[in-house]
Design a protein that fits this description.
single chain; 236 residues; alpha+beta; Immunoglobulin-like; 2 domains; six-stranded mixed sheet; four-stranded antiparallel sheet
């Protein structure tokens, strides 16, 4: 039997909250004649529905917004969790006289509950993993660059003994044909600044020789070491 003018109103179409917040679901009933039977909140519809709130039973996280009201059956769900996602229905039941059971009399249109935290947490975890991998790659790259730089700065091996009448001088190392450092003539660098005109007319001869690779030493590709010596000859 339908009761004229009775209506279950569930105005919220969708509610979006963040994990840990309180979910508030609104439901009111109205009608000219009262209908005997409870009002319950169900999550989902059909055989797999779950009772979220009823006048009897224990529901620790759910409370009535207006306690004891016969028209306002709004509820609050505290500490929202990802598993709270779903569609909630405010349902009016009617007590049957013959079977002494409650049957569905009328229901609201349903309110969809969605949590930000249910999708935000996986995204944050993925971002943290990506940042960690980038940090590891940066550390490996910096170590590789430092190793290459230290290898390039390694000094040349010691030169062998001088050959003939030429006295050995400090070596001049070249990389790809470009001198790394300029070596001053050991004889001319120690001469007095004031010289006679005769000494100014002296002729200097220089000989540049490539040095063989010393045993037990390796050079980087494209690197060669050389030495030179000078001989003073009086001009005629």
């Amino acid at each position: 039997e339908m009761v004229q003018g009775f209506k279950v109103e569930q105005p919220q179409g969708k509610v979006v909250v963040t994990a840990g917040e309180t979910i508030t679901l609104t439901c009111t009933v109205s009608g000219d004649r009262p209908v005997i039977g409870p009002v319950k909140w169900l999550k989902g519809w059909g055989s797999g529905n779950e009772t979220v709130y009823a006048d009897t039973g224990s529901f620790p996280r759910v409370t009535r917004a207006v306690s004891g009201s016969n028209t306002d059956f709004s509820i609050s769900i505290s500490n929202a969790q990802p598993e709270d996602d779903g569609i909630y229905y405010c349902v009016k039941f009617r007590r049957t006289v013959t079977a002494d059971v409650d049957e569905v009399f009328q229901r609201g249109k349903g309110t969809e509950v969605s949590l930000h935290g249910s999708t935000l947490v996986p995204i944050m975890v993925a971002a943290a993993v990506l940042l960690f991998l980038l940090l590891v790659l940066c550390i490996v790259f910096c170590m590789y660059r430092r190793k290459r730089r230290d290898k390039a700065k390694r000094p040349c091996p010691a030169s062998p003994a001088a050959v003939g009448n030429f006295s050995p001088t400090p070596k001049l190392c070249e990389t790809n044909g470009t001198p790394r450092s300029k070596v001053l003539d050991t004889e001319t660098s120690h001469q007095p600044s004031q010289q006679s005109s005769k000494e100014d007319n002296d002729i200097q001869y220089a000989d540049l020789q490539l040095l063989p690779q010393a045993a037990g030493h390796r050079r980087s590709p494209g690197t060669a070491c050389s030495e030179y010596a000078s001989v003073m000859v009086a001009a005629k």
